[in-house]
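All the exercises in this workshop are built on plain-text protein records. Sequence and backbone structure share a record, each on its own labelled line. The question running through the whole workshop is how a given chain folds. The record below serves as our worked example for the rest of this section.
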Amino acid sequence: MRILITGAAGFIGQILAEQLLADPLHTLILTDIIEPPIPRSAKHPQNAKCIKADLFDASSSVVTADLDAVYVFHGIMSSGSEANFDLGMRVNVDATRALIDTLRHTCPGVRVIYASSGAVYGHPLPAVLTESVLPTPESSYGVEKMMGEFLINEYTRRGFINGFSLRFPTISVRPGKPTAAASSFLSGMVREPLAGKECVIPIKDRSWKHWLCSPRTLVWNLVHMLGVPGDALPRHFRSVNVPGFQVSVQDMIDALERVGGKEAVALLREEEEPETKRILMSWADNYDNTLAIKLGMKQDSNFEQNIRDYIEDVREA
């Protein structure tokens, strides 16, 4: 398959590209606002082409008529979108519309997998969320992601593309550096202490829960979506909550202690940040993933295993 990944310099773009490049039959176009690297551990790096492009006005430079699939990962994350409204709208909405419109004209009917977020939900929230719950986002990021979902629905309904919007849980544990996402600490509170560094937890309520997914499981589900039949969902309703599991801050601290010891936990500092807390408290923390499981996705449920997977992946890298 010939596959385009936008936002390919980011963490998810990189780990997906590495997985796809394990198959010699895949050829990739990797694009981002900076020139994305080819993953160092890729088995077939010669099958990837990297392009620096601003999708807002240069989508035609990365879209080719022979594309089989597109992963739409570019975006300004939650705190970044809240801090800079114009930039969030330009990247998360305007550039997405420009890309999808280019796909419509250049390779009609192409499979599009759009990275959305649980941030599309806001209060009032039911005890358990399904895709039938009306999204009422309480952040600029959530609003912008919902606009992207509507674009995927409409362009699929009209037959211009064959798209799915995947509402990602928070992915933890991510390698690399902290990001502008409000949820960044949910990786940092493991990653930084294991590297001997301090991490600030921006909420003091250890009973606060969040919906998480491991990087390995996310990538498996992303690759799986390449083969899901196009008629698996109604053409006007293409949103799916990607499987995750519920973890509290205390659960994460306990798992960190079991793996990294008390010295790792000692590097955590709880310091409430009101604006970040407001965003975090608006997010749902319990989902019914029946639809995703029906589509063949899989689910993990053990945060300690997430930590051990992270350690193994870092060692391999």
